[in-house]
Each structure stands twice: as structure tokens, then as C-alpha cells.
Specification:
With about 350 residues, the protein is α+β, with helices and mostly antiparallel strands. The protein contains twelve helices and twelve strands. The strands form three sheets. Strands 2-1-5-4-3 form a five-stranded antiparallel β-sheet, sandwiched between helices. A five-stranded mixed β-sheet has the order 7-9-10-12-11. The longest helix has about 45 residues. About 30% of the residues are buried.
Length: about 350
């Protein structure tokens, strides 16, 4: 190729696991392509030299427009980095592409196989979504019987038949203390999982939103009998992608669902909706719960909000949760808002830029 074999760049590129490349802008010709291209794509450097379109053919059809957009920004930004899918035979792979404009004549960069990393992140986020959903179910399922035990203990304590029985009264007191302690423990657990950690850095990745949100809502659908509410997911048939920190978005969506459960009566209906505009996506959650009084709505997203109120079963509601959602969404260049009519339910919406 155009770079001699004893050149340091080519010597490094020939032994690296990543594929390094150099492209002459004036001649529109590759002058170096590392040997790792074969392990990553299944194509050898020689065939790519003869037919550059062969690289384009292995880019996943759904990602080609995205890759075009990335490449068109290269000369303006002088550096681009993108993650997209390729098809290596029957195998789907994820690659990370980085390119730099060195001068007016040369583009150089590298391509890395990040399939294992992406799969690990995907499964970690899926497990986390399941964990958050199950925590919501457990909190709902545990608090009710604990509260009932506490109520029955109070009834025993106030029964005239045991007012002089110190042994029974002492036992009842212990039961009530244990109930209070466990209710506090459940509240603290939910707060730590859903309300904290906004300070963790934002890590944006191109995400297939249809599947990512479906994974979240499926966990609640699987628990409908326990929670005694029905859950639906409404999204278009088209594929919607966004460059976001899905881990943080999942935290926000779970928080909104848990709040909806708190303020929706047994038998209620909760709907997650995904829509797409030219440059943004919207994730909205509708419920047919008790709604939010008009005088509280302006304060919903404040820290230590005055809109704080308990759920239908005395659960801790709103509090810092919505302010954390606002921060996490704004960190990603988005916005969040609520619409509600008291007695008729509420809608919470998150709008995020799609990115490229």
C-alpha cells in the first residue's frame, strides 16, 4: 500500500487488534489499512482496495444513514467517533469507528470490535431494569402486609381485654417497632435505587429505543397480578434510535412507573409511549390515577418539593424523585414535564435529542 512497510504507523497497525487506516482525500484512495480488518469484518485489505464499496455493503442496513451523517460531519468537526453494527457473514458485530482529519490531504483513524463490550452493557442494563422492576414489586408487595400487621398490632394494643397484660403489650410493642423499622428500610432501599446517583457521569451510546423500553415494561407486565395494575407499551413500527445514556433513562422511566403505581388504584392502567420527532424522541407515561392538584403542579420537579405527598397506601411519593429525573434528563440535553387533571390521571413526558 501507499505507506512503506517499515513505517512505524504500518508496523503498529499490522500487529494491532484494532484496524488502523489512512485515506488520501485528494486521490480518494486508501493508503493504509491494517490487517485486523479481516478479523473484524471478514474482508481482507486487498479486496477492500479493489472495491471500497464492499465495506459499505457490510454495514447494517438500519445503520447506514447514521454512518452517512457521521461522515458528513467529519470535515467540519475534524474528528468523529461512532458506534454501529456490521454483518460479518451471519454474525452481527458492533464496531467503534474513530477518524481524524490530519490535514487537507489525509484522514486517519481506527476501527475496533466492541461486540463483547456492547453485549456486556446490554445484559447489565437488562439485569438492572429487571432488578429495579422487582424492587418496585417487592416494595409494593411487602409494605402492604407490614402495614396490616402494624394495624392489627395497634388493634390488639387497644383491646380492653389485654390492657393489663404486660407480656402481650410488650410483644405488641416489639411487633410495631419491627414494622416501623421494616417500612423505613423499604423506603430507604427504594430511595437509594431510584432517587440517588445523579452524579454518575453520562455515557451516551446509540440505543435502539423500541427494544430498550420494551425490556423495562415487560418486567412490570410479568408482575401485573402482584401489582394489580395493567401495563402497556405503545410505540411505532419504525425503528427509533437515539444517542443517550440508556442506563440513566431507564432509571428515570422506572422512577416514573413506581410513582404511577403509588398514585393509581388497584385495577388501574399505566401506559408507556414512545414517539419520534425530527430531532428528538419523547417517552411519556400515562396513568388513570388520582391526578395531581393544580396548585402542586408548578413545584413537581423542585428539590425537596412542596408537592410531596404520600401514595394511596401511604407510600413515600414524589419527594426528590422527580428532581433527580429532571437533572438526569437535563444532563443529556433534554427536558421533562407533567400534565395532569385531578381525578383523571397524569402524564409525565421526557424529551431527549436523538443525536446523530
Amino acid at each position: 500500500m501507499g505507506i512503506i512497510e517499515n513505517d512505524l504507523f504500518s508496523r503498529l497497525g499490522n500487529v494491532a487488534r484494532d484496524c488502523y487506516f489512512a485515506f488520501n482525500i485528494i486521490d480518494s484512495k486508501l493508503i493504509y489499512l491494517g490487517k485486523a480488518i479481516y478479523a473484524i469484518t471478514g474482508l481482507d485489505a486487498g479486496s477492500i482496495e479493489k472495491d471500497a464499496e464492499s465495506i459499505w455493503e457490510i454495514v447494517h442496513p438500519e445503520d447506514r444513514e447514521y454512518v452517512r451523517q457521521v461522515l458528513t460531519t467529519l470535515f467540519k468537526s475534524k474528528h468523529v467517533q461512532a458506534e454501529f453494527r456490521i454483518l460479518n457473514g451471519d454474525q452481527l458485530k458492533y464496531v467503534q469507528f474513530s477518524a481524524y482529519v490530519i490535514d487537507n490531504n489525509l484522514i486517519a483513524g481506527h476501527v475496533s470490535d466492541i461486540t463483547n463490550l456492547k453485549n456486556n452493557i446490554f445484559y447489565a442494563e437488562k439485569i438492572n431494569a429487571r432488578k429495579n422492576a422487582m424492587l418496585g414489586v417487592l416494595a409494593h408487595d411487602l409494605k402492604e402486609p407490614v402495614a396490616i400487621i402494624n394495624m392489627m398490632a395497634s388493634a390488639i394494643k387497644n383491646n380492653p381485654a389485654v390492657k393489663d397484660n404486660e407480656d402481650i403489650l410488650t410483644s405488641v410493642k416489639v411487633i410495631q417497632q419491627l414494622c416501623d423499622r421494616n417500612i423505613t428500610l423499604i423506603k430507604d432501599l427504594m430511595n437509594k435505587e431510584f432517587l440517588e446517583a445523579p452524579e454518575v457521569g453520562i455515557r451516551k451510546e446509540r440505543t435502539y429505543m423500541n427494544n430498550a423500553l420494551a425490556d423495562i415494561i415487560t418486567q412490570y407486565q410479568n408482575s401485573e397480578k402482584v401489582i394489580d395494575r395493567s401495563f402497556d407499551f405503545v410505540r411505532p413500527e419504525t425503528h427509533i434510535y437515539a444517542t443517550i445514556d440508556m442506563f440513566k433513562v431507564a432509571q428515570c422511566v422506572n422512577n416514573l412507573i413506581v410513582n404511577a403505581i403509588k398514585f393509581t388504584a388497584d385495577g388501574g392502567h399505566i401506559v408507556l409511549r414512545l414517539t419520534e420527532q425530527a430531532n428528538t424522541i419523547q417517552i411519556c407515561l400515562d396513568d388513570d390515577g388520582i391526578g395531581i392538584p393544580a396548585n402542586l403542579q408548578p413545584y413537581l420537579f423542585e428539590e425537596r418539593s412542596r408537592a410531596h405527598r404520600p401514595g394511596l397506601r401511604g407510600e413515600n411519593g414524589y419527594g426528590m424523585g422527580l428532581s433527580i429525573i429532571r437533572l438526569l434528563v437535563e444532563f443529556q440535553g433534554g427536558k421533562v414535564w407533567a400534565e395532569s387533571t385531578e381525578g383523571l390521571g397524569s402524564t409525565f413526558c421526557i424529551e431527549l435529542p436523538k443525536g446523530i
